[in-house]
């Protein structure tokens, strides 16, 4: 709260002591001028006069420090490389872990137990969804985000492994290899042609996912023919291929470096959904033979 004119008692006391009140506008102008680059960076307070991210606190000048609110694209090349290495190394561990869990769940004794307790698939799927939502909220909280990422990976591994336990192992291997080649190619496309802006796909991908989930809900109650199911799976493969392009573009440009756990969830879900779509296509085609 400020006064356009000082109260009478305050003005009288100042006149006796020889003090003159400083206008509020002069105080604010002095405060702004005392901070280098304050006016020039008013719209981007996290960036210094040279355009580089400001340290979190005095004396914090580590070149590899992950600055809050600074995107990967704005970070130094060293920080960007460290971020991407962490994301893809963690993704590789997730894939290896999920593959190992899937192999264990194909054992006859465990597969029979899953058949008798099919609720385990719904439970792990619902739990992974809840964990993912909590991880999004806590994506900046360390080590909570790492713990939630590990829990999410374990739940997804059990859910996917249980769902494909009865699919022919040759078909599963084919789907795994095809998914790997497609996923790597899509990632390379984003980094080889960085000028392409995939962020414009966002609204269309949302509508496509909404339609895809709606069709899947209908299929739960009114099963489609094998040909229609293969067509739906093909549409899902295209949808999640585009989602991969969109998410990789976001990770390399628009996300901040401290959101690496959230970036892992995005890529892991894209990879799993692409794998399941390709698996549905191959499984449907093999059953026709």
UniProtKB/TrEMBL annotation:
InterPro entries: Bax_inhibitor_1-related (IPR006214). The chain crosses the membrane at residues 87-105, 117-137, 146-166, 172-192, 204-224, 230-248, 260-282. Residues 1-13 have a biased composition (Low complexity). It comes from the Eukaryota. It is a multi-pass membrane protein. Residues 1-60 are annotated as: Disordered. Keywords: Membrane, Transmembrane, Transmembrane helix. Coiled coil: none annotated. Pfam families: Bax1-I. It is found in: Membrane. GO terms for cellular component: membrane. Belongs to the BI1 family. This is Uncharacterized protein.
């Amino acid at each position: 709260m400020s006064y356009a004119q000082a109260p009478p008692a305050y003005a009288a006391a100042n006149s006796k002591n020889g003090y003159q009140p400083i206008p509020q506008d002069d105080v604010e102008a002095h405060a702004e001028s005392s901070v280098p680059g304050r006016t020039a960076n008013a719209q981007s307070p996290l960036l210094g006069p040279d355009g580089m991210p400001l340290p979190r606190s005095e004396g914090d000048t580590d070149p590899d420090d992950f600055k809050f609110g600074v995107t990967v694209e704005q970070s130094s090349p060293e920080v960007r490389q460290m971020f991407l290495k962490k994301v893809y190394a963690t993704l590789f561990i997730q894939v290896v872990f999920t593959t190992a869990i899937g192999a264990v769940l194909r054992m006859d004794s465990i597969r029979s137990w899953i058949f008798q307790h099919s609720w385990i698939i719904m439970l792990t799927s619902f739990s992974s969804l809840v964990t993912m939502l909590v991880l999004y909220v806590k994506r900046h909280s360390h080590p909570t985000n790492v713990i939630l990422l590990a829990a999410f990976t374990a739940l997804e591994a059990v859910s996917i492994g249980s769902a494909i336990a009865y699919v022919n192992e040759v078909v599963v291997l084919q789907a795994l290899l095809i998914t790997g080649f497609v996923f790597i190619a899509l990632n390379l496309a984003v980094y080889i042609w960085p000028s392409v802006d995939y962020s414009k796909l966002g609204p269309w991908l949302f509508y496509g996912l909404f339609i895809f989930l709606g069709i899947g809900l209908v299929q739960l109650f009114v099963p489609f023919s094998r040909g229609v199911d293969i067509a739906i799976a093909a549409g899902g493969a295209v949808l999640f291929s585009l989602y991969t392009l969109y998410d990789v573009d976001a990770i390399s440009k628009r996300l901040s470096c401290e959101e690496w756990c959230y970036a892992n969830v995005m890529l892991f879900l894209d990879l799993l959904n692409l794998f399941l779509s390709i698996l549905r296509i191959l499984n449907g085609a093999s059953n026709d033979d």
